[in-house]
């Protein structure tokens, strides 16, 4: 209470009443996901999501597939990878909205079985497991196979040529799954490594499905290159053969034939004498030791397929890549031509084969 004197001298009692009113807090918790751990896992794996604003959460999902969860606090949720989940972000939904993780959770696939357990090349094999959606590859003991993703839990694959007995592998964006059991490839099979090379190249050959302890001949086309003894299980590995120097560029066949069982298997091998870089080697020797078609005696007999005049001189070898011939000219341009084969007339490129020029920025002297 406060006193004041009026003009008449009387005191007026002025009662000042202060009313205190509660003001709502302006501070709010923002819904957000800051991290989660682990970053990968199979179906059923426990995942801890951290962030803020989780109180009252109504859903947690892995790339759109809802999962069971527990809100431990406003900053922590414990969940598990649900059946049907695929690789992608994690989301948390509350009455305030939905938060999405910046990084993705990788759902690791699993292989629970396959049928049949054995068969020859070309057999259709049904693979069962989890998280197969988006699969990018299937292998039979490291040999790539053709396949179809039937569902999240099933893949149908075909036993590829040259496959050897061993585990099956499935690759997805979430990881790689391997079978615990081996698929048994029946019938003889062989695998040459590598599958291409120049004349004189060393090739390692492995095989399986032959007779127990029988002699096996290994040939390239009709040239006998090695004789090996198969194991009691009918297999062999690490057998080195050398591509004959006279083998012409092109497709050839490595053949293994059992002398007792009559079982045989083939695998393709490509012979190539391509130049890997300008003037063949790093020292620029300009000499291809594996060339067995062109020589000083055969080169004069070659005829030009086509020609084209650039804006200036050409002082380097052309490059061929993906069916296109690239030529650098001293006019600061690169010319691109489709490789001849469907050209209009001899000695002139088909007009449609000339690609647009790519202008080059001149390099200052000394750089």
Q: What does this protein look like?
A:
With 367 residues, the protein is mostly beta strands. It has four domains: 74 residues, Immunoglobulins (Immunoglobulin-like, Sandwich); 76 residues, Immunoglobulins (Immunoglobulin-like); 82 residues, Macroglobulin (MG2) domain (Immunoglobulin-like); 55 residues, no CATH class. 0% of the residues lie in helices and 46% in strands. It is built from no helices and 33 strands. The strands form nine sheets. It has a five-stranded mixed beta sheet, with no helix packed on it. The radius of gyration is 36 Å and the shape is flat.
Topology overview:
Blueprint: E1 2-5, E2 11-14, E3 32-37, E4 40-41, E5 46-52, E6 59-62, E7 65-67, E8 69-73, E9 76-80, E10 90-94, E11 97-100, E12 106-107, E13 110-115, E14 118-119, E15 124-130, E16 137-140, E17 143-145, E18 147-151, E19 154-158, E20 166-172, E21 175-185, E22 189-193, E23 196-197, E24 202-208, E25 215-220, E26 223-229, E27 236-242, E28 250-258, E29 264-271, E30 319-321, E31 324-329, E32 333-338, E33 358-359
Parallel strand pairs: 4-12, 14-21, 23-29
Antiparallel strand pairs: 1-2, 3-5, 5-9, 6-7, 6-10, 8-9, 10-11, 13-15, 15-19, 16-17, 16-20, 18-19, 20-21, 22-24, 24-27, 25-26, 25-28, 28-29, 30-31, 31-32, 32-33
């Amino acid at each position: 209470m406060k006193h004041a004197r009026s003009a008449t001298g009387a005191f007026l009692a002025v009662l000042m009443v202060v009313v205190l009113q509660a003001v709502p807090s302006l501070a709010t918790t923002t819904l957000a996901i800051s991290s989660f751990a682990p970053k990968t896992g199979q179906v059923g794996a426990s995942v801890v999501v951290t962030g803020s604003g989780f109180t009252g959460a109504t859903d947690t999902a892995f790339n759109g597939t809802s999962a069971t969860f527990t809100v431990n606090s406003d900053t922590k949720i414990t969940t598990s990878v649900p059946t049907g989940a695929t690789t992608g972000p994690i989301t948390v939904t509350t009455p305030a909205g939905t938060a999405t993780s910046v990084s993705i959770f990788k759902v690791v696939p699993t292989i629970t079985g396959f049928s049949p357990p054995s068969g020859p090349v070309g057999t259709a094999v049904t693979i069962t497991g989890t998280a197969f959606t988006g699969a990018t590859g299937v292998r039979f003991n490291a040999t790539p196979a053709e396949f179809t993703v039937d569902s999240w839990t099933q893949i149908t694959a075909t036993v590829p040529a040259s496959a050897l007995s061993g585990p099956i592998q499935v690759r997805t964006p979430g990881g790689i799954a391997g079978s615990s059991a081996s698929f048994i490839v029946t019938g003889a099979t062989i695998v040459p490594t590598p599958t291409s090379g120049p004349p004189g190249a060393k090739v390692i050959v492995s095989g399986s499905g032959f007779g127990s302890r029988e002699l096996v001949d290994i040939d390239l086309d009709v040239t006998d290159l090695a004789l090996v003894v198969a194991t009691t299980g009918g297999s062999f590995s690490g057998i080195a053969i050398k591509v004959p120097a006279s083998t012409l560029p092109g497709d050839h066949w490595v053949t293994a034939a059992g002398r007792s069982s009559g079982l045989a298997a083939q695998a393709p091998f490509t012979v190539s004498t391509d130049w890997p870089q300008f003037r063949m080697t790093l020292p620029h020797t300009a000499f291809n030791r594996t060339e067995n078609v062109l020589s000083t005696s055969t080169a004069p007999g070659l005829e030009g397929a086509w020609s084209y005049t650039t804006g200036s001189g050409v002082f380097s070898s052309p490059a061929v890549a993906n069916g296109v011939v690239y030529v650098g000219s001293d006019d600061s341009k690169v010319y691109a031509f489709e490789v001849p084969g469907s050209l209009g007339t001899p000695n002139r490129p088909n007009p449609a084969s000339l690609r647009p020029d790519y202008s080059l920025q001149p390099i200052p002297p000394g750089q």
